[in-house]
Amino acid sequence: MPVSAVFAATFWRRFTRSAAAVVCAAPIAAIFARYPLPIWPLVAMLAAYSVALWRWPALYLVVLPAVLPALDLGLWTGWAMIDEADLFLLATLAVLVVRDPPALTDLTPRRWPSVILLLFLASYAIGLIIGLAAPLGYTGQSSNPYLRPDNALRLGKGLAEALVLLPFLCHRYRTSANTLRLLSCGIAIGLVVVTVIVLCERALFAGILDFTTDYRVAGPFSSMHVGGGHIGAYTALALPFALALGLLSIRWLPVLAVGGIAGSYTLIVTFARTGYAAGMMGCAITGLALLPASWRRGGLARVVLAVVPGILVAAAGAFAASSTVMRSRVASAATDLLTRESNWRAGWAVRDRDLATQIFGMGLGTYQRTMLSRSTVNRPSDFALEGDDTGRFVRIRLESPFYLGQKVALPRTGSVHLTLQFRGDTETAGLVWALCDKVLLYSDHCQEGRFSPSAANAWKTVSAVIPVDGLGAGALGDLIHRPVELALFGTTTGTTIAISDVSLTDSDGHPILANGDFRHGMDRWLFTDDSHVSWRILNEYLMLLFETGVVGLAAYLAIAGLAIAGGVRAALQGDTIGGAIAGSVVSFLLSGLFDNVLEAPRIATLYFLVCFAGLLLWEVRPSPPPSDRTA
Fold first, then answer.
1. Quick one: pLDDT at residue 109?
2. What DSSP designation does 473 have?
3. Torsion angle, CA of 561/562/564/566, rounded to 10 degrees?
4. What is residue 521's predicted lDDT score, i.e. its pLDDT?
5. Cα 400–403–409 angle (5° rounding)?
6. Residue 282 near residue 582, CB atoms below 8 Å
7. CA angle, 319 as apex, 221 and 227 as ends, to 5°?
8. What's the pLDDT score for residue 6?
């Protein structure tokens, strides 16, 4: 080949890689330009990670599975569409597309798993298009991310992020034997970090070893602001990897001890019945899948080592089930099942009955809009940013117990001064304020008051002086403090209230609240809702059938089945991580029996990465490293 042609090919290759890196990096700058919190800690973390990733291109296999569940500041930013983990994923793509780009043959798994994957992607793409195109009650005014057509993009993000990582995963898997081990390490590290966050939450609100108080943790999962068992589903998904890593060799036993204890503790304090069942079943399948390999590699002693972790997790579950909280939850299981059945029937009643809907569904992200426009029960509340000659305000239509809140940093003593303007569409449409210790699901030590409108549809300026003594108490030697939230909510369902010019100042007049005039949209404001049945069908499979139809549900189950079979097949051939993949996918499937676990994009990304790893196990594996072949 002529020198000029070689030069041109090299130049074009470098140019396209650089252009792709710029395309990946540009959204990072755009996100930072709008980010409502100080950006320098994140900038420093991203810069350090990018430099390290350039030096060690496989580092993303450890970092991303740890960052996805653990790094979430949504409680403080108020963002639901974009989160901090997205920045790390974009940085990963920007570096790897230049440093270690995959080949065209690495775009998908090989052989027939790629066919099933393409069918699944096609069904999701059809659901995405239908969801974006379907109005279904959207008036163009909603600021609620769940009640806009772009909710389809939020739900599709989980699969999309796993999909863009798939070529790099395929490339690494086909050239290095430790790929899935590194991925497992990242998942185990993420589980430990999540447990540290959970320990802090428990220390602040219930006590680390108090299993009698009915306090269920949320951890770093702001996606639970409208309910959902996301932390339980994640823990059940991650726990098999911590157990499997501890069985690789003797030197990995600390991973088994730390990861197993951390995961078991987090699972216990979720007090989630389905989470318990999913976690124990996932660990049991992991242990059973590893028995043949354990026998070949270490005889009876190795088999015992494979079985003991599952027994310990089962013992932890039995201990938790004997607590006062779980006995109460088990006793209410029949009543809760009736609630879920009512939720299933209500969701199914608003679905279209035509053939196209049966095949392809109502569209991704359309459930909440459909319930609001068609249902008489379980209707979600809505809110919208609007403006008039007085300025910007947020208008809230109350259909459920809906709270608009912002995390604030208060002085340790004294009082703060709250002022705002509000109006109601009727004379009974009052407004309540509450200043409470709160992470997400539970409020404590609340100071609250009520404002009544002077007349219907008339703005009224109101104020209150709020004592703060006792709020934001510390724990662990005052190293951490309870987060404090200012919440605003209406008093009467079926009415509409509007709020503007919210101000919270200390005794010296210094502002405490951010974006009280809503000039920056809904930045820093996060809504919560106590009516969890208004936002989802409490069954993953019915939700998929509703939004993606028979095709989407069948493709989802086919992908999961292939991943499980690939994991079992690899485990029978001596691959320890294969057993973890099989157990992890099964646990996630069980978590979906009574909840919509795919609605949290970060968990969906991690789950689909695990599934893709299961698909890759159908290929001929590289030779495992020595520690995988010997005890």
1. 84
2. -
3. 160
4. 93
5. 170
6. no
7. 25
8. 46
Dihedral (CA of 8, 12, 13, 18) sign? positive
C-alpha distance from residue 26 to each of 31, 38, 57, 79 (Å): 9, 19, 21, 19
* Three-state DSSP class for residue 421: strand
Whole-angstrom distance, CA of residue 163 vs CA of residue 27? 18
Q: Which amino acid is at 580?
A: A
**pLDDT averaged over the chain?**
88
Question: 3-state class of 383 per DSSP?
Answer: strand
Strand, helix or coil for residue 528: strand
Name which of 88, 185, 72, 156 is nearest 576 in CA terms: 185
Instruction: Output the DSSP codes for 551-617.
Output: HHHHHHHHHHHHHHHHHHHHHHTT-HHHHHHHHHHHHHHHHTTSS-GGGSHHHHHHHHHHHHHHHHT
Beta bridge partners of 499: 394, 422
From residue 119, alpha-carbon distances to 43, 153, 245, 483, 544 in Å are 38, 19, 33, 45, 15
Could you give the CA distance from residue 243 to residue 259 in angstroms, rounded to a whole number? Answer: 7
| Element counts in the chain: helices (H) and strands (E) | 19, 12
- pTM for this predicted structure: 0.93
Coil, strand or helix at 220: coil
Alpha-carbon distance of 198 to 270, in angstroms, equals: 10
CA 487 – CA 96 distance, rounded (Å): 43
Contact 219, 228 (CB under 8 A): no
CA geometry: angle at 566 spanning 240 and 65, to 5°? Answer: 45
Residue 513 is predicted with a pLDDT of 96
Start-end of H helices in 407-493: none
**Closest residue by Cα to residue 274 from 324, 189, 336:** 336
pLDDT at 321: 64
Q: What pLDDT sits at residue 309?
A: 59
Say how far apart CA 77 and CA 36 lie, in whole Å.
6
Cα–Cα distance for residue pair 391/512, rounded to 1 Å: 21
Q: Would you call 164 helix, strand, or coil by DSSP?
A: helix
Three-state helix/strand/coil letters over 427-443: CCCCEEEEEEEECCCCE
CATH for 382-530, options being 3.40.50.920, 1.25.10.10, 2.60.120.260, 2.60.210.10: 2.60.120.260
Altogether, the residues listed in the chain come to a count of: 631
**Residue-range domain boundaries for the chain:** 1-59+86-101, 102-334+535-629, 382-530
> Which residues of the chain fall below pLDDT 70?
1-17, 247-253, 255-257, 292-322, 620-631
Give the pLDDT score at 396. 96
